[in-house]
Amino acid sequence: MRILFATGGTAGHINPALAVASYIRETQENCEILFVGTSDHMESRLVPNAGFDFKTIDISGFKRSFSPKAIVHNVKTVARLVKASGESKKIIKDFKPDVVVGFGGYVSGPVLQTAVKLGIPTCIHEQNAFPGITNKTLAKEVDCVMLTVEDAKKHLEPKNEVIVTGLPVRGELLKADRDFARAQLGIPDDKYLVLSFGGSLGATPLNEAMFGILLSSAESGKYCHIHSVGTNGTEYLDKFEKEGFKNGKKGTVDVRQYIDNMDICMAAADLVIGRAGASSLSEIEALGKASILIPSPYVAENHQYHNAMALVNRQAGFILEEKDLTSEKLSEMIDSLLSDRAKLAEIEKNAKAMSITDSRERIASIILSLIK
Predict the structure, then answer these.
(1) Residue 2 pairs with which residues in a beta bridge?
(2) φ/ψ (deg, to 5) at 362
(3) How far apart are CA 129 and CA 301, in angstroms?
(4) What pLDDT digit, counting tens, does each position of 24-36 carry?
(5) What does DSSP say about strands 253-256 and 163-164: parallel, antiparallel, or unpaired?
(6) Other beta carbons less than 10 A from residue 358's beta carbon
(7) What torsion, rounded to 10 degrees, do the Cα atoms 200, 135, 161, 36 define?
(8) In sequence order, what E strands does 95-190 have?
(9) How does pLDDT run across 218-235, given as a tens digit for each residue?
């Protein structure tokens, strides 16, 4: 049995694919797995590190601009696309996969389209509530389309009926225990814990809005707060130090550059504040956490807004768009939520109801079912 995965570009595409591939490797005997990606994105590091064979094709995405620089880039992209189709065909004919799986990113396009032309069973997984251009195109051709949330269905024209599988969540998060986590962090029983972060790199608008809130919270001690400024937010660590923070801590506030025990912090939290990437939202749902979501407006198709609205429309979270983000507005939302235990419990219940904790198994089962 041979399975070929095509994905790349961002961790949001790559990590779910790796989770599914690892599960198949653990549960299926005599299974060969090959990943196809690009040499200049993070898949070239993450896939080999996970112990999978890896091949590359030369492909890039189109820029949505008519500037001279963008036009030159897009002309080169067309040339790369033609070349990538040939490279994909060679990889597929050499590997002879029984099924080809796409997890998003423009690298999926030529690989899956080539597999379709060669008559090989194909399927794709879409992580976001608003699908990317590559998966919108592929949905019309592949044998099966899998979705994280049903909201994405209305944006697609699939050849066959879509299947909602959810998105794989890290095992350590599924096993996390709230009481144990709070004890680990030293959170008193009578205090709420707010957890906020803008991704691994950080988000300047969130750091700016949080600065005043964290200073005030450190003085009042009305609730505990853990905040990550991100690897690009070093300047904020200096700003907090000037305000009397020692090693990022003051009163009930803990400011970090990066949260390396996210499973513990997420499990202990009563309220999560952050961006609306598909993986983060799946983790929030899996643990049944109330959230204030601040979607990044800088991502393709503004998909984080649609991800956030999937929760908002089910009374499972709140949204605060970046254009409306201020310390005052965010502080008001935090205080309003934490002062209403019944409302908080309702949001937690609705978020948990959205969770699909066996997503990895569901996706693997569909992939295997396509093998002739």
Answers:
(1) 32
(2) -60, -45
(3) 10
(4) 999 999 999 999 9
(5) unpaired
(6) 14
(7) -80
(8) 99-102, 122-126, 144-147, 163-164
(9) 999 999 999 999 989 999
**Strands 224-228 vs 253-256: parallel, antiparallel or unpaired:** parallel
pLDDT of residue 84: 76
The tokens 């609730």 sit on which residue?
223
For residue 179, what are the CA distances in angstroms to 110, 287, 288, 343?
A: 48, 13, 14, 21
253-256, strands of its sheet edge to edge: 249-250, 253-256, 224-228, 193-197, 271-274, 290-293, 318-319
pTM of the model: 0.88
- Residue-wise pLDDT for 251-275, tens only, equals 999 999 999 899 999 999 999 999 9
Q: Where does the pLDDT of residue 60 fall: very low under 50, low under 70, confident under 90, or very high at 90 and above? A: low
Contact 122, 132 (CB under 8 A): no
Predicted confidence (pLDDT) at residue 73 exceeds the cutoff of 60: no
Name 179's Cβ contacts closer than 8 Å, sequence gap at least 6.
none
Q: Residue-wise over 136-152: b if at least 16 C-beta within 10 A, else e? A: bbbbeebbbbbbbbebb
Burial of 260 (0-12, 13-18, 19+ CB in 10 A): exposed
Burial 272-297 (b: 16+ CB within 10 A, else e): bbbbbbbbbbbbbbbbbbbbbbbbbe
* DSSP annotation of 10: S
Give exposure, 200-232, as e/b (b: 16+ Cβ within 10 Å).
eebbeebbebbbebbbebbeeeebbbbbbbbeb
**Residue 28 per-residue DSSP state:** -
Among the ranges given (77-91, 118-132, 178-192, 336-350), the one the predictor scored with the smallest mean pLDDT = 77-91
